[in-house]
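pasting for ref
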Amino acid sequence: MNNLLRLYGAEARIVGDDPWTLLRDPQAPLPAGPAILPLALWLLYHRAEDGVWLGPDDEVQSLAPWLAQLPLIALDFPSFRDGRAYSQAYLLRTRLGWQGQLRAIGDVLRDQLSHMRQCGFDAFAVREDKCAEDALKGLAGMSVHYGRSAIEPRPLFRRR
């Protein structure tokens, strides 16, 4: 089952054919083709076609020298209660100005998707035991956001 959602402009769609392989185990052999590697492994190999995933304890600033060449950054949610990836996403988009694909991985659920989008995520690997069709509704659920965000830095009262 493919549970990857991706934003294309304002429209969210299920990705039919994701070329990326997420490598969770740093002891596993590197897959052929583009892979999403843990930070320590990515720093070791630096293959041009690979993306990197950051855990909650990894510093986003450590990627600053390579942001121009990275095709994808994935941020891990080890539990729905752990929100550190929201801050990492916001820092990547606002402070570091990164424009590439920013993917949420791990314990990603429908109720989180709207807030993830506001923090700068544009791809969402919804948990395998959840329905991707249902999760699409999580991205369409809110039409107006009052506060500022990575995608709209002006609060509502400044948008008049």
